[in-house]
Design goal:
Helix 5 packs parallel to helix 6 (124-132). The chain has an 8-stranded mixed sheet with strand order 3-4-2-5-1-6-7-8, sandwiched between helices. The N and C termini lie far apart (43 Å). 42% of the residues lie in helices and 17% in strands. The chain has helices at 16-29, 46-50, 59-63, 89-93, 100-107, 124-132, 144-160, 181-188, 200-207, 212-215, 220-233, 246-254, and strands at residues 3-8, 34-38, 74-75, 81-83, 113-117, 135-140, 163-172, 192-197. By secondary structure, it is an alpha/beta fold. It has a single domain (3-254), classed as Rossmann fold, CATH 3.40.50. Bound molecules: adenosine-5'-triphosphate and magnesium ion (MG). Adenosine-5'-triphosphate binds at residues 9, 12-18, 40, 43, 120, 170-171, 196, 198-199, 202-203, 206. Magnesium ion is lined by residues 16-17, 40, 117.
């Protein structure tokens, strides 16, 4: 059965697209047939995180009724399928997310997972993505404003009857100013299913248009993305995490 998982946050810039690309890549490596879909209609950029060429048919065409969702699926070399969104302002003008739910239902059946990368904020675009999905994977950084916004996402998902898969705590720097895992769990009311460190390798991977899981497969960030993906897929996998040494910790702290 296809699981439709919306990757949502409330606050922008916390790592939704990074999580979508990397969990999509890792699920594919674990043998799950996976589609990642760019439902950030206003500022789409999922294609840049994975490295796909400009694709002639996009989610905007599908939402307009001009194409079937399978026609907008680009197959990446890794086997991951990507549904990009249109990049032009004209695409944006003529499209509404209202029938996203019907479009996603058309994708149900064949893939094991459809990961929906949603927009920042809690406007119609992201609410439609939450309502159209079976589950929400909440992404936040460990700071109070982001966690407060994540809580609103959870409220919307609960109202819509969409299950919460868990919380991905991203960009963790282990600074004293950050909320820790337990504090985030008690505020949001759901388990933190992954703690992803803040690391320059993530930006480096984006600059070469690859998920970190492809760019640096053995890095701690990749191992943690693989760990949460294995949990989601129900696959047994022991992430190989090397604790950073004293000097690395010092460098990470002053960054
Ligand atoms: N763990 C991390 N360590 C370092 N940089 C990160 C990490 N996660 C994400 N980033 C960087 O932060 C920026 C924002 O990430 P991303 O685009 O995934 O966020 P987003 O929530 O999808 O943003 P938006 O709300 O604009 O869609 C990107 O440049 C990305 O490379
Ligand atoms: Mg994004």
């Amino acid at each position: 059965m296809t699981r439709l998982i919306c990757v949502s946050s409330g606050k922008g810039g916390v790592g939704k697209t990074t999580a979508t690309a990397n969990i999509g890549a890792a699920l594919t490596q674990f043998g799950a047939d996976t589609v990642v879909l760019d439902a950030n209609l206003t500022n789409p950029n999922l294609g840049f995180h994975i490295g796909i060429p400009l694709y002639p048919t996009t989610l905007h065409d599908v939402l307009k009724g001009d194409a079937h969702i399978t026609e907008a699926m680009y197959i990446h070399d890794s086997g991951l399928r990507v549904v990009p969104a249109g990049l032009s302002v004209d695409d944006l003008r003529d499209t509404s997310p209202d029938n996203l739910s019907d479009v996603l239902l058309d994708a149900v059946g064949e893939p094991d997972f459809v990961l929906v990368d949603s927009a920042a904020g809690l406007g119609q675009e992201s609410v439609s993505a939450i309502e159209a999905s079976d589950e929400v994977l909440v992404v936040t950084n460990p700071k109070l404003p982001a966690v407060t916004d994540a809580l609103k996402t959870v409220d919307i998902a609960e109202e819509a009857g969409t299950e919460i898969t868990g919380v991905v705590l991203n960009m963790v720097k282990d600074h004293d100013s950050e909320l820790d895992k337990e504090e985030v769990e008690s505020m949001i009311g759901y388990d933190v299913v992954a703690e992803i460190p803040h690391h320059e390798k993530v930006e480096e991977a984006l600059s070469v248009k690859k998920p970190v899981v492809h760019h640096e497969p053995d890095h701690n960030v990749s191992e943690r993305f693989k760990g949460v993906s294995a949990d989601i897929a129900g696959v047994s996998y022991e992430p190989d995490i090397t604790e950073p040494g004293f000097f690395q910790t010092l460098i990470d702290r002053v960054r």
